[in-house]
């Protein structure tokens, strides 16, 4: 009879999801209280802040967000004038998204708070627990094909029809960092 019951409290996918949700909910207080951002808006802002110019599709793939959530987040960030869209010269169905000066400023303001939040989490674990957690997560991510930013995605970011160069000239990060070079 016990074989017919799934104890969620010991089921790894359930536990991972529950922990991730609780951590994400706690972290959301930082960006929600400071800027009134939703989770998808924060993820979009953070992804563009780290990698520079990207398409909405690339943002969705990188952050595991459905295209409708990315679309709404992009529209809201654009309405705040934190994000700009540039049509692709070769394929006008594609838009390259980049943070504006105001968007980069908001991102830079949130980065220290995000790092401090992460540090508070790490400090609650013994060093060997933290190392084990990071090693285990990395193994699961590799198994599931969830690398931080795949080589092809990073190259697409870097070569986005010249738009990435324009964004870099406006203060975005060096794309080599995204490529691990």
Question: What is the gist of this entry?
Answer:
The longest helix has 24 residues, at 12-35. Residues 150-181 have low confidence and may be disordered. The chain is mainly alpha-helical and 181 residues long.
Model description:
This protein has 181 residues and is mainly α. The protein has one domain: Orthogonal Bundle (Arc Repressor Mutant, subunit A), CATH 1.10.10. 66% of the residues lie in helices and 6% in strands. The chain contains 9 helices and 2 strands. The chain has a two-stranded antiparallel ribbon. Strand 1 and strand 2 form a beta hairpin. Helix 1 packs across helix 5, helix 2 crosses helix 4 and helix 3 crosses helix 4. The longest helix is centred in the N-terminal third of the chain and has 24 residues. The chain is globular and about 60 Å long. The relative contact order is 0.13. The C terminus is likely disordered.
Uncertain parts: 150-181
Structural class of the helix and strand makeup? mainly alpha
Specify the helix fraction band: 55-70%
Number of strands: 2
Radius of gyration: 18 Å
Largest sheet: 2 strands, antiparallel
Number of helices: 9
One letter per element, helices H and strands E, the order comes to HHHHEEHHHHH
Instruction: Name the overall outline.
Output: globular
Average the pLDDT over all residues and give the rounded result. 85
Strand % is 5-15%
CATH 2nd-level architecture: Orthogonal Bundle
Full CATH superfamily name: Winged helix-like DNA-binding domain superfamily/Winged helix DNA-binding domain
Number of domain modules: 1
The fold-level CATH name is Arc Repressor Mutant, subunit A
């Amino acid at each position: 009879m016990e074989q017919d019951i799934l104890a969620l409290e010991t089921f790894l996918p359930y536990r991972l999801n529950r922990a991730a949700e609780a951590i994400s909910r706690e972290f959301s207080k930082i960006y929600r209280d400071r800027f009134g951002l939703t989770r998808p808006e924060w993820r979009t802002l953070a992804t563009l802040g780290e990698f520079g110019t990207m398409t909405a599709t690339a943002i969705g793939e990188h952050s595991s967000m459905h295209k409708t959530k990315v679309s709404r987040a992009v529209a809201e960030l654009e309405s705040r004038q934190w994000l700009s869209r540039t049509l692709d010269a070769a394929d006008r169905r594609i838009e390259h998204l980049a943070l504006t000066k105001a968007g980069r400023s908001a991102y830079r303001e949130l980065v220290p708070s995000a790092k401090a939040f992460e540090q508070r989490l790490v400090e609650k674990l013994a060093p060997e627990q933290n190392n084990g957690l990071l090693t285990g997560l990395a193994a699961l991510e590799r198994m599931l094909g969830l690398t931080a930013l795949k080589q092809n995605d990073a190259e697409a970011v870097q070569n986005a029809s010249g738009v990435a160069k324009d964004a870099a000239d406006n203060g975005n990060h060096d794309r080599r960092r995204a490529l691990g070079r």
